[in-house]
Amino acid sequence: MVFLLGFLFLCGVTDLIGSVSITIPEQTIQEAQGETVHLPCMFTLSPEDQGPLDIEWLRLSGPNNEAMDHVIILYTVDKIYSDFYQDLRGRVNFTSNGIMSGEASIKIRDVQPADSGTYLCKVKKAPGVAKTTVQLTVVDYIGSVSITTPEQTIEEAQGETVHLPCMFTFISKDQGPLNIEWLRLSGPNNEAMEHVVILYSADKIHDDVYPDLKGRVYFTSNDIKSGDASINITNVQLSDAGTYQCKVKTYPGTVNMNLQLAVTNHIGSVSITTPEQTIQKARGETVHLPCTFTLSPEDHGPLFIDWMQLTGPQNEVVNRMFIVYLADKIYDNFYQDMKGRVQFTSNDIRSGEASIHITDVQLSDAGTYQCEVSHAFGTAKGTIQLTVVG
Fold first, then answer.
1. pLDDT of 85-98, one tens digit each?
2. 184: phi > 0 → left, psi -120 to 50 → alpha, else beta; which?
3. Residue 180 belongs to a domain with what CATH number?
């Protein structure tokens, strides 16, 4: 009898619609051949859903995806069965151990062009049933897009807002729909995708996919398509530390970059000696934004300096990062509008001089700027208000 019920379930005969709901929209996902692809499926239950939890991932076929081609993976009676489909045997698994909490997403390793197609996630907990489909496209090369932000370690004090930068550029004019995923990785070599943190797909943002960061993570730019996929995490906690990956996809390109986030439980002895101030400059002139700092003998880690432009009523939002000093190198091509116009004023930044110049200053450059200096367990910030007159 149990076998018969299972068979009927697999065949989709008992297609009741109840109060189960899937929170991830139907979407198209593109991945490069040989990579690991993440097919998202997040769901919520209601008190009326009292039956056993069953989750199916199916591969569909036919002109309107009306035919069930294969069962890919199945979760039923607290067990996982992943050997139904020979072509994916050993390559498919659920991404989370917390399936009961609403995470039914799967990952497929070493994807191939033959894996392209339509996949259906079906969640059943009587009397509720919910479904969503994901269209997977696997391309055989990487191109058309590049991430200009270097891989780095970012350190922030507990309770602060941390900025994780990810700037990208389009290499070719032929571009498909833009998809951006921020992932949290795990494993000795960061080979495992632990969680999707935030997702941009089909011009929509989905920021409630990771319960631990719900309400605390957001994209910093209102114009992601311009090349800024950076995110902020507010009220950062020690448990947020780890490796995060920014993945940018636009046909036929896929590129990713990892950032290591370190969260400290105290702010150390770095101090910025420049007072917060307002500076006014005429349009077309060169403006000097001062930032001098001191370190103590206890600060032994690598020196990290970033200049950001802030927005929001309380200057709580990082609008963009536009120049960075990291591991004795300078990165000044993050922000297209200031490319070639911004530079550090000193050749010896480590001596305590993090001031910058912006040449040919424009009315659009006006706003609040933040200089942030991090060294070992020390972090200090100072802001400057820039006014440009015409």
1. 888 988 999 988 87
2. beta
3. 2.60.40.10
Residue 3 has pLDDT above 70, yes or no: no
**Domain boundaries, position 339:** 271-388
Contact 74, 80 (CB under 8 A): yes
Q: Work out whether strand 92-94 and strand 106-108 pair parallel, antiparallel, or are unpaired.
A: antiparallel
- What's the helix, strand, coil split of the chain in %, to 5? 10, 50, 40
173 pLDDT exceeds 80?
no
If asked whether residues 246 and 167 sit together in one domain, one would say: yes
Among candidate residues 264, 281, 298, the one where a domain is terminated = 264
The three-point CA angle 51-55-61 to 5° equals 135
On whether both 131 and 152 belong to a single domain, the answer is no
* pLDDT (tens digit per residue) in 195-204: 899 999 888 9
Domain boundary among 232, 264, 296: 264
| Whether residue 25 is found in the same domain as residue 86 | yes
Q: Which residue has the tokens 């997040």?
A: 42
Q: What is the DSSP letter of 167?
A: B
- Can you read off the two tokens belonging to residue 298? 């206890």
Examine residue 26 and state whether it is found in any structural domain, yes or no. yes
Residues 378 and 337 reside in one and the same domain: yes
User: Which residue type sits at 255?
Assistant: V
- Place 267 in a pLDDT band, splitting at 50, 70 and 90: low
Q: Would 65 be classed as within a structural domain?
A: yes
The CA–CA distances, whole Å, from 46 to 53, 102, 204 equal 12, 11, 26
pLDDT of amino acid 298:
63
Average pLDDT of the chain is: 85
Tell me: the pLDDT tens digits for 234-249?
A: 999 989 999 999 999 8
154: closest CA among 165, 143, 168, 142? 165
